[in-house]
Structures are given as C-alpha cells and as structure tokens.
Amino acid sequence: MLKKIFSLFLWIFVSVFVLSVCYVIGVFRNWTDTTTVFYWIFVILVTLTLKLIVDCIHNYFSSGKYRKLVRLFSREKRTITLDSYFRKGMNIISKKGRGVVPWFLLTGDSEKNASLLKDINLPVFHSNELNGISQQFRTIRWWFFRDSSVLELSGKIYDNPGVLNSVIGFLSARKSKKQPPHGIVLVIPVETLLDHDYSCIQVLSQKTRNFTEQLSSHLHHNIPVFLVISGCEHISGYSSLAQKIHQKNNNGYPVFWATNKSDTNASEYDSSYI
C-alpha cells in the first residue's frame, strides 16, 4: 500500500515539475496556454512510454526469456554450418570425371568424441599419416578414402532433437536425393557383446532404426543397414576367422572390423575394414 502511495505522489510530483518547466519555457517563447498544455501532455506520454519499455525489457531479461532467442540463434547458426560442411563433402563426391563414388553413413557410440575409425590404419586423402583419423568431433565428419567416402555421425546427435532434425534436413536435400547414401553402418564394440549387457545395444539400435526410417521416408529410398563389430583383435584367432569369412563372402564386405594399433604400412593394413 505504501509503495503504491509513494508511486502516486512521485508521479504527481513529476507531472507538476514537467508542467512548471513547460510553463517557464512557454513564457520565454510566448506560447499560448493550449500549446503549453499540449507539450506537457506530450512529455508525460513520452515518459510513460519509456517507463513501459524499460519495464518490459527488465521483465524479459529477469524471466530468462532471452535465452530462447539465444538458443534459436545458435541453432540457426549451427544448422547453416552443418549444411555448408555437408554440401562441401557432397561436392567432392559429385565431381565430374570420378564416376559414382559410394558413400556411407557411419554411426555408433564413441568415447570422448573420438572417431569410430580411429586407429584402423587406413590412409585418408587429407593427411600424409597412416593413422590420420584422430580428430575429435561432436556432430558430423567426412572421411574420404580411395574407393568410397564416409560421413560419420556422432552418437550424441540422437540425444539432441534440434541437431538430429538439422542432420535429417540436409541429408534429405535435393543433392542427397540424386545421390543417396549406399548404406548406414552401425558400429558395436565387441566388448559390449562380451559383457552380456544388451541394454545399451538396444537403445542405440532403436535410435538408429528411428533415424533410418525417418531418412528413408524423406529420401523415398530404402537405405540398407550394415552391422559392424569393432575391436575384434582382442578375440583369440580373430585373424584366421576374418580371413575365412572374407574368402567365403568372395572377398565382399567383411563382418568384423579390427582397430589395428600396430605400425604397418598403408599397403599392409588389415583386410577387415569397411
């Protein structure tokens, strides 16, 4: 109550003060009474408008609504960045004279934002080193090899609906419809299978399935899914098993995938890769 009374007296004081100032100015400028009252009302209205604007700005920031605008701006900027990066990779794949270069989507759970292709001893075009796949990433990453290309999707994008929708959006663009991915490769570590804890596998498989169904629906194209078991070098007799399976499949796509950490030449990397 006292606060309202104080505000009322404050406004009365301000009104009287403004009227006095307008009256003094009117005397020196020979204003009529009507002009003086008009300027007085105009100044009061401007003051009330400014107070209303200041109160709205204060309430906007104090309630934290500005964070939605910041998130929206960040999301738009991130979407533009991802779309530009994806288009650059597609332009490399679609260069004239190279023919149809197959490209795959690679996904799975990785530790510390590391690539699922880390330490597989495959030469890449953008690095002179054999193990050039060592950079960390949080969303998407292109890898270009001799006969194919891979767009790796971080497993964290499935937990962020905004990023996931952005990824599906640019993967469903016109250029992707002209040259859709040849498949989605789901990587599951062999340690997870040996631990007999299938809850993580079920969650990842469900996320991958939902993503595949949405993308296939947008592209109007059935995308095959390949399952790869990584880290098989820890299994005794793996090399012999991989070689037999490789020969049985008529040197087609392998079933297992070793992250070979030994120092070998580019021509001697393990045959069990994608």
From TrEMBL:
Keywords: Membrane, Transmembrane, Transmembrane helix. The chain crosses the membrane at residues 7-31, 37-61. This is Type VI secretion protein. Residues 174-249 form the Type VI secretion system component TssM1 N-terminal domain. InterPro entries: TssM1_N. It holds the Pfam family IcmF-related_N.
